[in-house]
Design goal:
Layout: E1 10-14, E2 19-25, E3 30-32, E4 42-44, E5 46-50, E6 55-58, H1 60-68, E7 73-75, E8 88-90, E9 93-95, H2 97-114, E10 124-129, H3 135-147, E11 152-157, H4 158-173, E12 179-188, E13 193-203, E14 206-217, H5 222-236, H6 246-267, E15 272-281, E16 284-291, H7 292-317, E17 326-330, H8 337-347, E18 353-355, H9 362-375, E19 383-387, E20 394-398, E21 402-407, E22 415-422, E23 431-437, E24 447-454, E25 466-473, E26 478-485, E27 488-495
Parallel strand pairs: 1-10, 10-11, 12-17, 14-19, 17-18
Antiparallel strand pairs: 1-2, 2-3, 2-4, 5-6, 5-7, 8-9, 12-13, 13-14, 15-16, 20-21, 20-23, 22-25, 23-24, 25-26, 26-27
Helix pairs in contact: 2-3, 4-9, 5-6, 5-7
Length: about 500
């Protein structure tokens, strides 16, 4: 077992869209830290810039301050991590998504340090991302950790973290048994949806995780459901925000959002929720009752979308729901009754559905476990092996801005693909091989991973130079691109996680 060191621990951080959490390995298992300044084990992923004091606020205080000055606050910045150049203006100051994410990470880490009089320093930290994140989104998360001065040794996909947390319970319950099952991780959080199908094999000597198929949507989650609830509140309250000036509209939206979230949570436990919002607009209030059936009607398009993603998973894996032994719930939005009902219908009841005691903590706890494993390979008393699959198509740009995939999504790693290309312009002396990730036919609609440049080509007519491009993806999701032509050879590595 790894040695526990409270002042020099191994740590896992779940950088969530709406809530974040932090945990450590205490030598016996994962343990979530209490975040003293929030009074809970989770931190609201809200950021506020106070232009008067020129200070940044994070967490519940940032969210509450944002109710009064919404133009200074942002939530859900994780959804913006695909564009690091995006300018977010809060209180007259401009931030990037990476900078705001760094502030959230810095806050949660410094809070833990303060509990140890500033003496704590993590010897290894793992930060999680959705499995469906593309390469640049993972890299932006890593940069945010660096900005926060966190010793980020690795980026781990959230469903793998959730599965590790579940598997640790299996190890405790069946320490010396051989155990095999297919696991579906259903991770529906505040802003993203991840679906990952694993094969788990446990023996006294080894834990094996083999990804069988993945799916998801990085623009689907609790924030979308909150917006639908807001539409219900406005309709039943006979109110409209049309024509309001920007400041009044911001304030109204924040009041509505807070009430919508509370109503959504209430409807997870009861059939009705009373919603009272004084002065949504000056002089106009809301005093209504919302029932669960009304909420489920507006959720149905999202349920249909989620069901479609799950159905595609069966096609990709050649499995059926009956082949799945266990469904692991992660993310707070998976607790919504309509989502549980969808899974119960698909899997013939609730017997296969497993939830951590706190859905908001299992990802951070799993990340802490993985950090412990990286720190000490004998931490679980057995080897841990993770076999992954590619989550997105990988390819290059060809003539006319077309996307040519070399490695398709859902390929088992490690994998390799080689393709022969040629020039389409006479007497070209140099080329940039642009590498992209995505599913669209045109590269402009996909994500640029990087570029491999080749120079000093012999001047030939178009079509007379052979260019061999080889893609290799290893178990750690590292892509290596090798370009060979006319005595020239160059290899470049791109790290997805």
């Amino acid at each position: 077992m790894a040695i526990d060191n409270e002042l020099n621990p191994v740590i896992g951080i779940d950088l969530g869209t709406t809530f974040s959490a932090i945990a450590r390995w205490d030598g016996r298992g994962p343990k979530a830290y209490n975040i003293n300044r929030s009074g809970t084990t989770t931190l609201q992923s809200a950021f506020y810039h106070d232009s008067i004091k020129n200070e940044n606020l994070v967490g519940a205080i940032a969210y509450k301050r944002g109710l009064t000055f919404p133009e200074n606050m942002i939530v859900g910045v994780k959804r913006l991590m695909d564009d690091a150049t995006q300018k977010i203006v809060l209180g007259g100051k401009t931030f990037s998504p990476i900078e705001i994410s760094a502030e959230i990470l810095k806050y949660i880490y410094s809070d833990v340090k303060d509990q140890y009089a500033g003496q704590l320093k993590s010897r290894r930290t793992v930060v999680t991302v959705p499995y469906y994140f593309k390469a640049h989104q993972c890299e932006h998360t890593r940069k945010a950790a660096e900005l926060a001065d966190i010793n980020c040794s690795d980026i781990l996909q959230e469903p793998i973290a959730a599965s590790l947390a579940y598997s640790w319970q299996l190890v405790q319950d069946h320490p010396n048994e051989d155990y095999q099952e297919n696991i579906l991780v259903f991770d529906l959080g505040g802003g993203t949806f991840d679906l990952t199908l694993f094969r788990l094999e446990q023996s006294p000597k080894k834990l094996l995780f083999e990804v069988l198929a993945t799916g998801g949507d990085d623009r689907l989650g609790g924030m979308d459901f909150d917006q639908k609830m807001i539409e219900i509140l406005l309709a039943k309250g006979n109110l409209s925000l049309d024509g309001l000036d920007e400041k009044l509209r911001h304030k109204a939206v924040q009041k509505l959002t807070e009430a919508a979230i509370e109503a959504k949570h209430t409807l997870s436990g009861t059939q009705t929720a009373n919603v009272i919002i004084p002065d949504v607009i000056p002089g106009q209030s809301i005093d209504i009752t919302v029932n669960r059936a009304e909420f489920e009607v507006v959720l149905q398009p999202y349920v249909d979308k989620i069901e479609g993603i799950i159905e595609k998973l069966w096609d990709d894996s050649s499995l059926t729901p009956s082949d799945v032994n266990r469904v692991i719930l992660a993310g707070s939005s998976s607790n919504i009754p309509r989502m549980k009902a969808l899974l119960a219908d698909m899997f013939g009841g609730t017997k296969k559905i497993y939830a951590n005691n706190n859905l908001s903590l299992c990802v951070a706890e799993g990340a802490a476990m993985y950090a412990a494993y990286l720190d000490d390979r004998e931490v679980f008393g057995r080897e841990v092996e993770i076999r992954t699959r590619t989550c997105h198509n990988l390819g290059i740009e060809t003539v006319g801005g077309q996307f040519y995939p070399l490695i398709r999504a859902n390929r088992k790693t490690p994998c390799e693909q080689r393709q022969l290309f040629t020039t389409d312009v006479d007497y070209v002396s140099s080329l940039d091989i642009n590498v992209y990730q995505g599913a669209a036919k045109l590269v402009k609609d996909n994500s640029l991973v990087g570029t491999v440049s080749i120079n000093d080509l012999p001047k030939r007519l178009k079509g007379e130079i052979d260019i061999t491009v080889t893609f290799k993806v290893n178990e750690e999701q590292m892509l290596s691109v090798t370009v060979e032509t006319q005595g020239f050879r160059r290899s470049v590595g791109f790290n997805f996680t």
